[in-house]
Write a structure and sequence with these properties.
CATH architecture: 2-Layer Sandwich
Radius of gyration: 16 Å
Strand order of the largest sheet: 4-3-1-2-5-6
Helix content: 25-40%
Structural class: alpha/beta
Distance between the termini: 16 Å
Number of domains: 1
CATH superfamily: 6-pyruvoyl tetrahydropterin synthase/QueD
Largest sheet: 6 strands, mixed
CATH class: Alpha Beta
CATH topology: Tetrahydropterin Synthase, Chain A
């Protein structure tokens, strides 16, 4: 099996509800997503896929959907005040953990037609979460 991995940098803010640590407060991260795509056979260019295709499609989605967004649970009390201020928000159904963000990027990459096998999101230089397909 062949695979390629593209790294994509983005920034986001979030907080965790029903959590008893410091992440219950609004804060931000400079994240790095690693998108791994695989295949058993290379294409006519002798590639798994072109890195620029991953960049154009997946980074394009991250840039318009997650980058510099406050990622919040739909029932977070901060949603309404931030919306009233016109602040950029991305809403999710459960706590916006790095695990959920990795799965969200995985799902979007799969939906875009890539044979994605793994998405790892580095929340800090020493902490990351990975979502792998079935």
């Amino acid at each position: 099996m062949y695979s390629v991995t593209k790294k994509i940098d983005f920034c986001y803010g979030h907080r965790l509800l029903d959590y008893d640590g410091i992440c219950k407060h609004p804060h931000g991260h400079n994240a790095v997503a690693e998108i791994e795509v695989c295949t058993n056979t290379l294409d006519g260019r002798n590639m798994v896929c072109d890195f620029s295709d991953i960049k154009r499609v997946v980074k394009g989605w991250i840039d318009t959907t997650l980058d510099h967004q406050m990622i919040l649970r739909r029932d977070d009390p901060l949603v309404k005040p931030l919306q009233d201020l016109g602040e950029p928000i991305f809403l999710v159904d459960s706590n916006p953990t790095v695990e959920l963000i990795a799965k969200t990027i995985y799902d979007q990459t799969k939906h875009a037609g890539f044979n994605v096998v793994r998405v790892t999101v580095w929340e800090t230089p020493t902490s990351f979460a990975t979502f792998s397909g079935d």
